[in-house]
Amino acid sequence: MRHFLVMAAFALLTSVVFGTVAKDTNRERVLYGAKVFAEFMIIGLALGWILYFVPF
Amino acid sequence: MAVSDNVRELEEKVPQRAWLMAFAGWFLPGVGHLLQGKWGRAVLLGGAVWTCFLVGLAMGGHMFSPTPSDQGSSAWLQVPPMIANLGSGVLYISSWLMGVGFSDDPAHAARATYEYGNTFLLIAGLLNYLSMLDAFDISAGRKS
Predict the structure, then answer these.
(1) Do A10 and B120 touch (CB under 8 A)?
(2) Angle in degrees, 0-180, between the axes of helices B47-58 and B90-98, rounded to the nearest 10
């Protein structure tokens, strides 16, 4: 559980910065930040499951 | 010829203030935007960098610096992560001066969150480089 929370904190902090420095309008920034956050979480979980089955 | 004229014209238009804002933003995360009255961005960017750095330290992360004991390629391998850490500005410098986060204690490295801490400290510096460039662009009139 702690690993997941650390990953979520990392994704949140990074997506806040990415969303703030990118795009032109506030709406676009929020959407982009949310998209980056979702990508971090989904890819992180997917990689976690893939690596779970790697025997070494 | 015309392209080089345009490039020169663009370079000349960057005001001195933009470099100052970039330096302020690098030195103290968030201040580059604060000095330009961009309160929201200052809180979001500065807050994210400060939080990332402090969480990294709390998790027992280690920062990189070239030390005389490192020789050959070992010394050079310290440089890229050190550049990333250096992005935190005064946070990195003050930690270095106080000796916080620079110890090579094996017991410290054995903590379960050690690698997480390292990553958070590296990312804090890299995020602040992005923040610094944003402060520069705003001051130079390239962004609103």
Answers:
(1) yes
(2) 30
Beta-carbon contacts of residue B14 (< 8 Å; ≥ 6 apart) = B140
Residues A27, A50: Cα–Cα separation, whole Å: 34
A31 and chain B: CB distance < 8 Å anywhere? Answer: no
Distance from A17 to chain B by nearest Cα, in Å?
6
Query: B37: phi > 0 → left, psi -120 to 50 → alpha, else beta; which?
Result: left
Per residue in B100-123, pLDDT (tens digit) is: 888 877 877 888 888 999 999 999
Total number of residues shown for chain A: 56
Q: What is the pLDDT of residues A42-56, one digit of tens each?
A: 999 999 999 999 887
* Separation between Cα atoms, residue A24 and residue B136, nearest integer Å: 16
Cβ contact, residue pair A17, B48, below 8 Å: yes
Q: Please name the amino acid found at residue A11.
A: A
CB contact under 8 A, A21 and B55: no
CB within 8 Å: B48 and A9: no
**What is the reported pTM?**
0.88
Q: List CB contacts (< 8 A) between A28 and chain B.
A: none
